[in-house]
Write a structure and sequence with these properties.
The protein is mainly α and 387 residues long. It has one domain. It is 79% helix and 0% strand. Helix 6 runs antiparallel to helix 7 and helix 7 packs parallel to helix 10. InterPro entries: 7tm6_olfct_rcpt. Pfam families: 7tm_6. This is Odorant receptor. It is found in: Cell membrane.
């Protein structure tokens, strides 16, 4: 199959399903229906949190907070994307224009096809890993319940896929089976939503990096030319400057779309990681292997999620730096003064590196990810010493 877009078929389907793709039919109705279902789930989830907000029920409280906060983050992500429909449209139109320009030039098409292949693979891998982690998390509760019953712990309640409290009798058949199926499908839908959003930011950064690689290749081609024709180079450099401006505009739209979202992602994931570490310490000392395995898989999924955002910011920053290096390494000293000044402007503009920020307060990078992991490890050591 010939790749003609950085957006994978799975990601495109997900964007259409979540009504993020422009010009979808009945968009308002679908958004209201999905958001209403999430808000209803949140009501039952936070009801559970408030009921079990007791020190002696710390394990149930922490376990419920993990999924509850994840649902709250989903609301923030969807609201942000739906609110910025114009920005999403501009981004998709820019990507389509870039691909139409690449089709006519083989070396451009080769660069973008390589980026698109990575994007498609990562999108599919994210969905697979998140699905496996979620299923293991849900099965962990059922496994723990079976083990407790075998130990005669006097547990008579029937577990649900996630922690919540219904305002009616929900453990009688067939109501129980219907609710379990509904909750399982809703949890998987939430995982699908989170995966689509994560895959979207990764895909957009890969597309921007592909465009930067094209400009770098053009500077390299200019450096390999033996004879400098003024008109040819003026036209080529002018085209590269226009392409560079398009990348800057594309990056600004990414910042508008994901800045607040990434801030909430870092904040919420930090809370979830701390909650999981409390659950990990409790499971390590009190629970059998099922609870520990469940916690480890969810912790890994949350860590991968925050790593995706930080890696995307780091990758975009490094690519913008490579653009300045490519411009400087070109044979600018053999060009006319006018062309030299144009390249100088490219170098100067590239020194202000493209980046993704968490609410404009911190650039997303691997250093930020390392800081989060370092704080997480310190928190675990303190919990272990206090337990």
């Amino acid at each position: 199959m010939v790749i003609t877009s950085t957006i994978s078929p799975l990601l495109k389907y997900g964007l259409r399903f979540l009504d993020i793709w422009p010009d979808m039919a009945f968009s308002t109705v679908k958004r209201l229906f999905y958001m209403l279902s999430i808000l209803i789930m949140q009501f039952f989830q936070y009801h559970y949190v408030f009921v079990h907000f007791k020190f002696e029920e710390m394990q149930n409280l922490v376990d419920s907070l993990t999924v509850t906060l994840d649902y709250s983050l989903t609301i923030v992500k969807l609201t942000t994307l739906w609110k910025n429909r114009r920005v999403v449209r501009e981004i998709l139109v820019a990507m389509d224009t870039d691909w139409r320009e690449c089709i006519s030039v083989d070396r451009y098409l080769q660069v973008m096809t390589s980026k698109a292949s990575i994007s498609h693979f990562c999108s599919n891998a994210m969905l697979g890993l998140n699905t496996i982690a979620t299923i293991l998390y849900i099965l962990g509760d059922y496994a723990l319940n079976i083990v407790h019953k075998d130990k005669n712990d006097n547990i008579t309640s029937r577990p649900f896929p996630i922690k919540l409290i219904f305002p009616f009798e929900a453990e009688q058949s067939p109501t129980y089976e219907l609710l379990v199926l509904t909750l399982f499908l809703h949890v998987m839908l939430n995982v699908f939503t989170v995966t689509i959003v994560n895959a979207l930011i990764f895909t957009l950064v890969l597309h921007a990096s592909g465009q930067i690689d094209i400009i770098c290749e053009e500077f390299k081609t200019l450096s390999e030319e033996k004879i400098f024709y003024c008109g040819y180079f003026e036209h080529t450099i002018g085209t590269l400057i226009k392409k560079h401006n398009k990348i800057i505009s594309f990056s600004k739209n990414l910042e508008k779309l994901f800045s607040f979202m990434t801030l909430m992602q870092v904040f919420w994931n930090t809370l979830v990681i701390c909650s999981l570490e409390i659950l990990f310490m409790i499971s390590l000392h009190n629970e059998p292997g099922f609870g520990l395995m469940k916690t480890v898989f969810v912790y890994g999924g949350i860590t991968v999620e925050i790593f995706i955002f930080c890696f995307a910011g780091e990758y975009l920053r490094l690519k913008s730096k490579s653009l300045a290096d490519a411009a400087y390494e070109s044979l600018w000293y053999n060009m006319s003064p006018k062309n030299c000044k144009n390249i100088l402007f490219v170098i100067m503009r590239s020194q202000k590196q493209l980046s993704l920020t968490a609410g404009g307060m911190a650039n997303l990078s691997l250093e930020v990810f390392a800081s989060i992991m370092k704080a997480s490890a310190s928190y675990v050591s303190v919990l272990n010493a206090m337990y």
